[in-house]
Specification:
The protein is mostly helical and 96 residues long. 45% of the residues lie in helices and 0% in strands. 10% of the residues are buried.
Length: 96
């Protein structure tokens, strides 16, 4: 895994990437946009940071998830953030 030299990942960023990777509705494009890591880099990070059994479960889940990959997504979805979601501040839903 070779992240951009200008973006060193601290422990908090790694935790957030893992959280985003586990979320079904968060595509790899969102992780790349926010952290500069491509799908292969995220997979390498997950393999390094998770137990092997957890990594296997995650990989199986990702392979079957239509919302994680742009090619598998339903046409017409061109965003990776909910309209109700605040700007990436712990992803809290705004109060209406």
């Amino acid at each position: 895994m070779q992240p951009d030299k200008s973006k060193i990942l601290d422990e908090q960023a790694v935790d957030r990437i893992i959280e985003m990777a586990w979320e079904d509705r968060t595509p790899f494009d969102a992780i790349e946009f926010q952290f500069g890591l491509k799908e292969a880099d995220v997979k390498a990070l997950m393999k390094k940071e998770l137990k092997f059994s957890s990594y296997k479960l995650w990989r199986e889940r990702v392979e079957n998830c239509k919302t994680k990959h742009r090619a598998k997504r339903v046409e017409g979805i061109d965003r990776f953030k909910c309209k109700l979601q605040r700007n990436i501040s712990n992803n809290k839903i705004s109060k209406r």
